[in-house]
Every structure is written in C-alpha cells, then in structure tokens.
Amino acid sequence: MATATARLRRTAATAVRAVRANRSSKACLLQQYN
Q: What is the pLDDT of residue 8?
C-alpha cells in the first residue's frame, strides 16, 4: 500500500505542476495579445 500511495502522490504532484504550467503559459499568451 505504501508504494501505491507514493505513486498517487507523485502523479498528483505532476498533475499540479502541469496545471500550473498551463495557467502560466495562458497568462503569458493573454499578456502578449493585450
């Protein structure tokens, strides 16, 4: 079970990083258009 929870935490962390990266990239694009 410990390995399963560790994997879930890793996947969650990567997902959060991806979401943050997408938000930052979108903000940059909006700034460029404005």
A: 92
